[in-house]
Amino acid sequence: MPTYDVTKSTEWNMENGPLFEGDIPIRSSFRKRARLWDFELNSPLGVPAGPLFNSDFIKLYADLGFDVLVYKTVRSVARKAHPNPNIVFVDPGAGITKDRLGSDIVVGKEPSDLSKITITNSFGMNSLGAEDWQKDFDLAQSYMGDGQLLMMSVTSTPGESGRDMKEDFVYTAALAKDAGAKVVELNFSCPNVKAGGEGSIYTDPDFSAEIVAAVKKELGATPVVIKVGYYKDLADLDAVAAAVAPFVDGISAINTITMLVRNGDGSQALPGEGRLGSGLCGAALKPYALETVGRLAELKRTMKYDYEIFGVGGVVRPEDFDDLLEAGATVAMTGTGAMWNPMLALQWNEAV
Fold first, then answer.
1. Which of 183, 190, 293, 344 is catalytic?
2. What's the CATH code, domain 10-347?
3. Phi then psi for 19, rounded to 5 degrees?
4. Domain ranges for the chain
5. Cα separation of 307 and 16, whole Å?
6. Which has the closest alpha carbon to 113: 340, 352, 321?
7. Torsions phi, psi for 123 (to 5 deg)
8. Local confidence band at 159 (pLDDT 50, 70, 90 cut-offs)
9. What is the DSSP-derived secondary structure letter of residue 127?
């Protein structure tokens, strides 16, 4: 049973979730501890921004042995989620090859084998108002135990905030630090925002570097991470990494990949203007996450870059964590996998 009810609205899930039954095992040992900057961690496993909608979700996943948690992306102004449904299952067929990325994909059924689970999510980076999420983040922080780290993900809301893109990133990152965030992630990649451009910043090396430099100047010693999407051409990833390397402390990769989600009759699956394109998540992302993490690790080694790597995408089995770690990730994270199997971290910890 997933911790999020896909038949209900985001607001319902935030108020009533997470859904979880049964006892929570207590870890009596730790398979592999990790170090991230000055933080000593019980494990290198985490959950990225997305499934952790509020402090209640943070508490559950911290209790279940995920040690690096990223509070869902917030804004400086309140923003409602897209209309329900926000999550649908899709049919990846025999696999989604690189030439199929960005093309049509058809709604499917929930697979009986969770190692094959692939979904699309379309929330639109909804957010509580700043005062509300600051209070909730403070509560979430109180649930973190020894050897655990809670990060905050932020985005910009140009226009509505009265500030331009860079100014609002700086402003919102400062709000996150004021709320107690020990690490701030700048979400440069989201396929599910209709306008504003905040979801495609990761494709622009110069602007990405400009924003990170400004945020870093504001936050000082607080580590700053950027969340990027998938680059079909690795030369584009190389250019972004080179541009941000002097300023950034970490890179999280990858976010969801845009697909055109349709019903079997060809109609748009998700209701509303601008929602034909939606982010692909789950098992189908794994090869693209591994490719990106591997390249970031290679660049870090050969170019002497000093960033940490957060590997995200395609982790639906315990062994998938190991694949991302072996590819070069400092921290391996799961979103979809953790939603449908919240015991993943504990299963990994018990593996021999």
1. 190
2. 3.20.20.70
3. -90, 120
4. 10-347
5. 37
6. 340
7. -105, -30
8. confident
9. B
